[in-house]
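Protein entry
_____________
===
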Amino acid sequence: MPKNQREVTLTEYQIGKTTYLVCASPSDRATDSLDRKIRKLIKKDMEQSKIFDKQ
């Protein structure tokens, strides 16, 4: 693999009736672990869903 390309990992998470497809590639500057990042993304999605449910 060329130096400027990164390996991408695709992971599927199912929570209730919602399926999340997560594409991940390593970063030299990353400070969060993969678990922490996924939790933050799911939390953000849930917060946005609450906003749309109220409308």
